[in-house]
Protein backbone atom coordinates (compact mmCIF):
# COMPACT_ATOMS: atom_id res chain seq x y z
CA UNK A 1 0.00 0.00 0.00
CA UNK A 2 1.26 3.48 -0.87
CA UNK A 3 1.62 5.75 2.15
CA UNK A 4 -0.73 8.74 2.07
CA UNK A 5 0.82 10.73 4.93
CA UNK A 6 -2.62 12.05 5.90
CA UNK A 7 -1.72 12.70 9.54
CA UNK A 8 1.45 14.53 8.56
CA UNK A 9 -0.42 16.67 6.06
CA UNK A 10 -3.02 17.56 8.68
CA UNK A 11 -0.31 18.52 11.18
CA UNK A 12 1.26 20.93 8.70
CA UNK A 13 -2.05 22.71 8.06
CA UNK A 14 -1.80 24.38 11.45
CA UNK A 15 0.39 26.61 13.60
CA UNK A 16 3.80 24.99 13.16
CA UNK A 17 5.63 26.06 16.31
CA UNK A 18 9.41 26.55 16.28
CA UNK A 19 10.53 26.23 19.92
CA UNK A 20 13.47 28.26 21.18
CA UNK A 21 16.45 26.40 22.63
CA UNK A 22 17.10 27.84 26.11
CA UNK A 23 20.62 27.95 27.48
CA UNK A 24 21.79 27.53 31.06
CA UNK A 25 24.08 29.99 32.84
CA UNK A 26 27.13 28.04 31.63
CA UNK A 27 25.96 28.31 28.01
CA UNK A 28 24.86 24.70 27.61
CA UNK A 29 21.39 23.61 26.48
CA UNK A 30 19.02 23.69 29.48
CA UNK A 31 16.90 20.51 29.26
CA UNK A 32 14.58 21.27 32.19
CA UNK A 33 13.70 24.73 30.90
CA UNK A 34 13.28 23.40 27.37
CA UNK A 35 10.82 20.80 28.60
CA UNK A 36 8.91 23.45 30.54
CA UNK A 37 8.65 25.65 27.44
CA UNK A 38 7.40 22.67 25.43
CA UNK A 39 4.76 21.89 28.06
CA UNK A 40 3.60 25.49 27.91
CA UNK A 41 3.14 25.21 24.13
CA UNK A 42 1.35 21.88 24.42
CA UNK A 43 -0.90 23.08 27.24
CA UNK A 44 -1.63 26.16 25.15
CA UNK A 45 -3.10 24.04 22.37
CA UNK A 46 -0.14 23.69 20.01
CA UNK A 47 -0.03 20.32 18.25
CA UNK A 48 2.86 20.65 15.75
CA UNK A 49 6.43 21.25 16.93
CA UNK A 50 9.64 21.81 14.97
CA UNK A 51 12.71 21.18 17.11
CA UNK A 52 15.93 22.40 15.50
CA UNK A 53 14.31 25.18 13.52
CA UNK A 54 15.88 28.57 12.97
CA UNK A 55 14.15 30.01 16.05
CA UNK A 56 15.78 27.11 17.90
CA UNK A 57 19.20 28.37 16.74
CA UNK A 58 19.78 25.28 14.57
CA UNK A 59 23.00 26.54 13.06
CA UNK A 60 24.49 27.47 16.45
CA UNK A 61 23.95 24.01 17.99
CA UNK A 62 26.46 21.18 17.94
CA UNK A 63 25.45 17.82 16.42
CA UNK A 64 25.10 16.37 19.93
CA UNK A 65 22.91 19.30 21.00
CA UNK A 66 20.68 18.93 17.96
CA UNK A 67 20.22 15.26 18.81
CA UNK A 68 19.45 16.17 22.42
CA UNK A 69 16.83 18.73 21.40
CA UNK A 70 15.16 16.16 19.14
CA UNK A 71 15.12 13.57 21.92
CA UNK A 72 13.74 16.00 24.51
CA UNK A 73 10.98 17.16 22.19
CA UNK A 74 9.79 13.69 21.29
CA UNK A 75 9.92 12.53 24.92
CA UNK A 76 8.05 15.56 26.24
CA UNK A 77 5.42 15.70 23.51
CA UNK A 78 4.55 12.03 23.51
CA UNK A 79 1.34 11.65 21.55
CA UNK A 80 0.27 15.26 22.14
CA UNK A 81 1.94 16.69 19.05
CA UNK A 82 3.32 15.84 15.64
CA UNK A 83 7.08 16.36 15.50
CA UNK A 84 8.74 17.91 12.45
CA UNK A 85 12.49 17.71 13.08
CA UNK A 86 14.80 20.23 11.42
CA UNK A 87 17.72 18.63 9.56
CA UNK A 88 20.38 20.04 7.29
CA UNK A 89 24.08 20.77 6.65
CA UNK A 90 25.88 18.25 4.39
CA UNK A 91 23.94 15.29 3.02
CA UNK A 92 25.42 12.62 5.34
CA UNK A 93 24.74 14.79 8.38
CA UNK A 94 21.19 15.54 7.26
CA UNK A 95 20.50 11.87 6.52
CA UNK A 96 21.88 10.79 9.90
CA UNK A 97 19.71 13.38 11.66
CA UNK A 98 16.64 12.28 9.70
CA UNK A 99 17.23 8.63 10.57
CA UNK A 100 17.77 9.57 14.22
CA UNK A 101 14.44 11.40 14.19
CA UNK A 102 12.75 8.41 12.55
CA UNK A 103 14.17 5.97 15.07
CA UNK A 104 12.87 8.11 17.93
CA UNK A 105 9.36 8.18 16.48
CA UNK A 106 9.16 11.54 14.68
CA UNK A 107 6.75 11.61 11.76
CA UNK A 108 8.38 14.31 9.63
CA UNK A 109 11.58 16.18 8.91
CA UNK A 110 12.01 19.72 7.66
CA UNK A 111 15.05 20.12 5.43
CA UNK A 112 16.72 23.47 6.08
CA UNK A 113 17.55 25.60 3.08
CA UNK A 114 21.02 24.67 1.75
CA UNK A 115 23.53 27.32 2.82
CA UNK A 116 26.23 26.38 0.33
CA UNK A 117 27.10 29.52 -1.66
CA UNK A 118 26.63 27.71 -4.98
CA UNK A 119 23.22 26.05 -5.25
CA UNK A 120 21.99 24.92 -8.66
CA UNK A 121 18.34 24.01 -9.15
CA UNK A 122 19.28 20.47 -10.17
CA UNK A 123 21.57 20.23 -7.16
CA UNK A 124 18.73 21.40 -4.93
CA UNK A 125 16.66 18.46 -6.18
CA UNK A 126 19.53 16.02 -5.67
CA UNK A 127 20.16 17.26 -2.12
CA UNK A 128 16.56 16.86 -1.02
CA UNK A 129 16.12 13.59 -2.89
CA UNK A 130 19.06 12.01 -1.05
CA UNK A 131 17.49 12.91 2.30
CA UNK A 132 13.93 11.97 1.37
CA UNK A 133 14.96 8.60 -0.07
CA UNK A 134 16.83 7.78 3.14
CA UNK A 135 13.63 8.04 5.21
CA UNK A 136 10.75 7.00 2.92
CA UNK A 137 8.36 6.47 5.83
CA UNK A 138 8.71 10.07 7.03
CA UNK A 139 6.98 13.09 5.61
CA UNK A 140 9.55 15.50 4.19
CA UNK A 141 9.14 19.28 4.12
CA UNK A 142 11.64 21.38 2.15
CA UNK A 143 12.27 24.84 3.60
CA UNK A 144 12.41 27.14 0.58
CA UNK A 145 14.04 30.55 0.81
CA UNK A 146 15.55 30.66 -2.68
CA UNK A 147 13.52 32.95 -4.98
CA UNK A 148 15.28 31.48 -8.03
CA UNK A 149 13.92 27.98 -7.45
CA UNK A 150 11.11 27.04 -9.83
CA UNK A 151 7.94 25.20 -8.91
CA UNK A 152 8.74 22.66 -11.60
CA UNK A 153 11.80 21.58 -9.62
CA UNK A 154 9.71 20.86 -6.54
CA UNK A 155 7.33 18.81 -8.69
CA UNK A 156 10.34 16.91 -10.04
CA UNK A 157 11.46 16.13 -6.49
CA UNK A 158 8.01 14.91 -5.48
CA UNK A 159 7.76 12.73 -8.58
CA UNK A 160 10.83 10.88 -7.31
CA UNK A 161 9.95 11.08 -3.61
CA UNK A 162 6.24 10.82 -2.77
CA UNK A 163 7.04 11.44 0.90
CA UNK A 164 7.68 15.12 0.07
CA UNK A 165 4.27 16.20 1.30
CA UNK A 166 4.62 19.80 2.43
CA UNK A 167 6.57 22.96 1.79
CA UNK A 168 7.73 25.67 4.17
CA UNK A 169 7.81 28.59 1.75
CA UNK A 170 9.76 31.58 3.05
CA UNK A 171 10.36 33.85 0.08
CA UNK A 172 8.91 37.27 1.07
CA UNK A 173 6.81 37.71 -2.06
CA UNK A 174 3.14 36.67 -2.01
CA UNK A 175 2.79 36.86 -5.80
CA UNK A 176 5.85 34.65 -6.28
CA UNK A 177 4.45 32.20 -3.75
CA UNK A 178 1.12 32.03 -5.57
CA UNK A 179 2.84 31.30 -8.88
CA UNK A 180 5.33 28.84 -7.38
CA UNK A 181 2.60 26.85 -5.64
CA UNK A 182 0.57 26.56 -8.80
CA UNK A 183 3.58 25.60 -10.90
CA UNK A 184 4.50 22.89 -8.40
CA UNK A 185 0.92 21.72 -7.78
CA UNK A 186 -1.28 23.66 -5.41
CA UNK A 187 -3.20 20.62 -4.20
CA UNK A 188 -0.22 18.31 -4.25
CA UNK A 189 1.47 19.74 -1.16
CA UNK A 190 0.54 21.34 2.13
CA UNK A 191 1.75 24.91 1.84
CA UNK A 192 3.12 26.39 5.06
CA UNK A 193 3.72 30.14 5.20
CA UNK A 194 7.31 30.05 6.37
CA UNK A 195 7.56 33.72 7.29
CA UNK A 196 5.12 33.34 10.17
CA UNK A 197 2.21 35.54 11.22
CA UNK A 198 3.19 38.72 9.32
CA UNK A 199 2.86 36.92 5.98
CA UNK A 200 0.19 34.39 6.91
CA UNK A 201 -2.88 36.37 5.71
CA UNK A 202 -1.44 37.09 2.27
CA UNK A 203 -0.09 33.57 1.84
CA UNK A 204 -3.35 31.98 2.99
CA UNK A 205 -5.19 34.03 0.37
CA UNK A 206 -2.92 32.38 -2.22
CA UNK A 207 -3.26 28.80 -0.97
CA UNK A 208 -1.32 28.27 2.27
CA UNK A 209 -3.09 26.34 5.03
CA UNK A 210 -0.50 26.54 7.81
CA UNK A 211 2.14 28.92 9.09
CA UNK A 212 5.29 28.66 11.15
CA UNK A 213 5.70 30.69 14.31
CA UNK A 214 8.38 31.77 16.73
CA UNK A 215 6.05 34.24 18.42
CA UNK A 216 4.00 31.25 19.58
CA UNK A 217 6.69 30.58 22.21
CA UNK A 218 5.56 33.78 23.90
CA UNK A 219 1.81 33.80 23.25
CA UNK A 220 0.31 30.56 21.92
CA UNK A 221 -3.23 31.97 22.06
CA UNK A 222 -2.33 34.85 19.75
CA UNK A 223 -1.06 32.49 17.05
CA UNK A 224 -4.08 30.23 17.44
CA UNK A 225 -6.41 33.22 17.13
CA UNK A 226 -4.84 34.05 13.79
CA UNK A 227 -5.11 30.58 12.30
CA UNK A 228 -8.70 30.23 13.48
CA UNK A 229 -9.56 33.46 11.70
CA UNK A 230 -7.74 32.38 8.54
CA UNK A 231 -9.42 28.98 8.50
CA UNK A 232 -12.77 30.75 8.72
CA UNK A 233 -11.82 33.06 5.86
CA UNK A 234 -12.24 36.02 8.20
CA UNK A 235 -9.41 38.22 7.00
CA UNK A 236 -10.68 41.19 8.99
CA UNK A 237 -10.21 39.22 12.21
CA UNK A 238 -6.86 37.88 11.02
CA UNK A 239 -5.62 41.39 10.35
CA UNK A 240 -6.70 42.45 13.83
CA UNK A 241 -4.27 39.83 15.13
CA UNK A 242 -1.70 41.06 12.57
CA UNK A 243 -2.00 44.56 14.02
CA UNK A 244 -1.55 43.13 17.51
CA UNK A 245 1.73 41.41 16.65
CA UNK A 246 3.03 43.92 14.12
CA UNK A 247 5.55 45.75 16.30
CA UNK A 248 6.93 42.56 17.83
CA UNK A 249 7.55 41.12 14.37
CA UNK A 250 9.02 44.39 13.10
CA UNK A 251 11.58 44.24 15.89
CA UNK A 252 12.42 40.66 14.91
CA UNK A 253 12.76 41.55 11.22
CA UNK A 254 14.85 44.68 11.66
CA UNK A 255 18.39 44.79 10.26
CA UNK A 256 18.00 41.66 8.16
CA UNK A 257 16.32 39.71 10.98
CA UNK A 258 19.38 40.17 13.20
CA UNK A 259 17.21 39.92 16.32
CA UNK A 260 14.77 37.27 15.12
CA UNK A 261 15.50 34.88 17.98
CA UNK A 262 16.78 37.54 20.34
CA UNK A 263 13.41 39.31 20.60
CA UNK A 264 11.57 36.05 21.30
CA UNK A 265 14.00 35.09 24.06
CA UNK A 266 13.87 38.60 25.49
CA UNK A 267 10.08 38.35 25.71
CA UNK A 268 10.33 34.95 27.40
CA UNK A 269 12.94 36.34 29.79
CA UNK A 270 10.63 39.23 30.69
CA UNK A 271 7.99 36.64 31.61
CA UNK A 272 10.47 34.69 33.73
CA UNK A 273 10.37 31.65 31.44
CA UNK A 274 13.97 31.35 30.23
CA UNK A 275 17.27 33.20 30.06
CA UNK A 276 17.70 35.80 27.31
CA UNK A 277 21.07 34.50 26.09
CA UNK A 278 21.48 33.60 22.42
CA UNK A 279 24.58 32.31 20.67
CA UNK A 280 26.75 34.16 18.16
CA UNK A 281 26.21 35.35 15.52
CA UNK A 282 23.04 36.48 17.33
CA UNK A 283 23.35 38.82 20.31
CA UNK A 284 21.08 39.76 23.25
CA UNK A 285 19.18 43.03 23.06
CA UNK A 286 20.84 46.03 24.67
CA UNK A 287 19.32 47.18 27.93
CA UNK A 288 17.78 50.22 26.22
CA UNK A 289 15.58 48.07 23.96
CA UNK A 290 14.38 45.46 26.43
CA UNK A 291 11.53 47.44 27.96
CA UNK A 292 9.60 47.67 24.70
CA UNK A 293 9.68 43.93 24.17
CA UNK A 294 8.61 43.31 27.78
CA UNK A 295 5.70 45.74 27.38
CA UNK A 296 4.49 43.98 24.24
CA UNK A 297 4.62 40.57 25.90
CA UNK A 298 2.83 41.87 28.99
CA UNK A 299 0.15 43.43 26.82
CA UNK A 300 -0.80 40.06 25.39
CA UNK A 301 -2.22 39.10 28.82
CA UNK A 302 -0.46 35.75 28.78
Automatic annotation (TrEMBL):
Lyase is among the record's keywords: yes
Keyword list, A-Z: Lyase
Q: Which Pfam families match?
A: DHDPS (PF00701)
This protein's superkingdom?
A: Bacteria
User: What InterPro entries does the record tag this protein with?
Assistant: Aldolase_TIM (IPR013785), DapA-like (IPR002220)
What CDD domains does this protein map onto?
A: DHDPS-like (cd00408)
Q: Identify its protein family.
A: Belongs to the DapA family.
**What protein name applies here?**
Dihydrodipicolinate synthase family protein
The source organism is Streptomyces marokkonensis
Amino acid sequence: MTATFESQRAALADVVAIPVTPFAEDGSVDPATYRALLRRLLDGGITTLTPNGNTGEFYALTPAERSLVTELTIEEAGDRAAILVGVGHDVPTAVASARHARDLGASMVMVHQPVHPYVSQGGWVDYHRAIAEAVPALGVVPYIRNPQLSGARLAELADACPNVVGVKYAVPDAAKFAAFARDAGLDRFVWVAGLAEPYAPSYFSAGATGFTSGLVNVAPAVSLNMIEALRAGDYTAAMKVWEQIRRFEELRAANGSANNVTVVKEALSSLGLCRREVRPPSKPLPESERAEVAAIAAGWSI
